[in-house]
Amino acid sequence: MREVQFTILGEPRGKGRPRFAKRGNFVKTYTPEETLNYEAYVKMCYIQAANGIKLEGAISANITCYYSAPKSVSKKKREEMLCGDYPCQKKPDMDNIVKSIFDALNTIAFDDDKQITQMFVEKVYGEVPRIEVRLTEMEQTDEIH
């Protein structure tokens, strides 16, 4: 069982919605440049941590998104947020964060994100905004059919 852990520094970001542009009689669909740049950064973070490892088979993903506490809150409330007393409900949505990470890692960390068969995702407040990702190859069991 192999495992790769890496950190994506900065406020968690989600996958941007596709954009559309009319070119003559055709409509072109494209991914926003901001999303492309973020996905390139995620790839770089993985490559630096993985030492050439490409995961195989079924994969378990554990993703923790750390958000900075709002500056407008009191010191006491900030401490409570950092201790986990307040659930983090900041944007973006978890599913958009996961989509951005897995799309970036396709063909780099694994052949296809369909290999992710188990996932735990959490949003919390933290001193340093970041996303911590742990990908683990799951034990292969012989299926009986």
| Uncertain runs | none
Overall average residue pLDDT: 91
Distance between the termini: 24 Å
Based on Cα principal axes, name the global outline: globular
Q: Which class do the helix and strand fractions yield? A: alpha+beta
Q: Give Rg in angstroms.
A: 18 Å
How much helix is in the residues?
25-40%
How large is the count of helical segments? 3
Q: Which range does the strand content fall in?
A: 25-35%
DSSP, total strands: 6
Largest sheet features: 4 strands, mixed
Strand order of the largest sheet: 1-6-4-5
Helix and strand string, N-terminal first? EEEHEHHEE
What does this structure look like?
The protein is α+β, with helices and mostly antiparallel strands. It is 26% helix and 30% strand. It has three helices and six strands; from the N terminus they run E-E-E-H-E-H-H-E-E. It has a four-stranded mixed sheet, covered by helices on one side. Strands 2-3 form a two-stranded antiparallel sheet. Helix 1 packs across helix 3 (94-105). It is globular and about 50 Å long. The model has no long low-confidence stretch (mean pLDDT 91).
Features:
four-stranded mixed β-sheet, 6 strands
In short:
This protein has 145 residues and is of the alpha+beta class. 26% of the residues lie in helices and 30% in strands.
